[in-house]
Specification:
The protein is of the alpha/beta class. It has a single domain, classed as NAD(P)-binding Rossmann-like Domain (Rossmann fold, 3-Layer(aba) Sandwich), CATH 3.40.50.720. The protein is 45% helix and 15% strand. The chain is built from 8 helices and 7 strands; from the N terminus they run βαβαβαβαβαβαααβ. A 7-stranded parallel sheet has the order 3-2-1-4-5-6-7, sandwiched between helices. Helix 1 packs across helix 8 and helix 3 runs parallel beside helix 4. The radius of gyration is 17 Å and the shape is globular.
Length: 253
């Protein structure tokens, strides 16, 4: 852990941190001096990431779509850290890219529960603590899908549009409490959800069809998103709130 890192002395919870963007964010935060709780419903995956990080990391197993579970998880974080500085709402899910009427109600409910209602639960669980200590940073991982949607992902797109707007609304309401709320809108990345987003097998040829829609010519990586999250979480961004930072290679231009 870096004693003089950009997050030295800070504490953070990262949801969905057993893989993908969440794993990269947790790793980068720890490398920059933070103590990090790796929160995921996948206990084995979270434990593996915590082992990769080392002493700066610990595990919290929780379902972000369950309010009682998130309240318990917040209590664990407060007991472990004393005070919590940063929460990254990264956990997410998508229905498969497919014709509109092929997405059933169960998939609709699941994508809204994980992507949107989870933020409601996070607000309920963490904002009272931040109001008590007089500071806090929430970073919500949205998507370019909520800004420039792709066909076949209507209900996923809708959840990310909600995340983007919730971020701005929370920022306005919580600013008097010295709580900053920022978002990151990644373009499609090389994660476990990639074939789901594409709605087809993950092959080099199929990837090229989607990469062709990104002006800078590549998908996002965990490092890209972790770098953006690091800036927004750090004191360098002390006057930044309510933004949805597009990390998208120009996709939304």
């Amino acid at each position: 852990m870096a004693e003089n890192g950009r997050l030295a002395g800070k504490t953070a919870v990262v949801t969905g941190a057993a893989s993908g963007f969440g794993r990269a964010i947790a790793q980068r935060f720890a490398a920059e001096g933070a103590k990090v709780a790796v929160l995921d419903i996948n206990a084995d995956g979270a434990a593996a990431v915590a082992r990769e990080i080392g002493d700066a990391a610990s595990v919290i197993v929780a379902d972000v779509s369950d309010g009682a579970d998130m309240a318990r998880a917040a209590g664990e974080a407060f007991a472990r850290f004393g005070e919590l500085d940063i929460l990254v709402n990264n956990a997410g899910w998508s229905h498969k890219n497919s014709p509109l009427l092929e997405v059933d109600e169960a998939a609709y409910d699941k994508v809204f529960a994980i992507n949107v209602k989870s933020i409601f639960h996070s607000v309920q669980a963490f904002v009272p603590h931040w109001r008590q200590i007089g500071r806090g940073v929430m970073i919500n991982i949205g998507s370019t899908a909520g800004i420039r949607p792709r066909p076949g992902l209507t209900w996923y797109n809708a959840t990310k549009g909600a995340v983007n707007l919730i971020t701005k609304s929370l920022a306005g309401e919580l600013a008097p409490d010295r709580i900053r709320v920022c978002g990151i809108a990644p373009v499609m990345g090389d994660t476990a959800l990639l074939s789901t987003f594409m709605g087809m097998e993950d092959t080099p040829q199929n990837r090229e069809k989607f990469i062709a829609t990104i002006p800078l010519g590549r998908m996002s990586t965990g490092t890209d998103i972790a770098n953006a999250a690091l800036y927004l979480a750090s004191d360098e961004a002390s006057l930044v709130t309510g933004v949805n930072l597009e990390v998208d290679g120009g996709r939304c231009v």
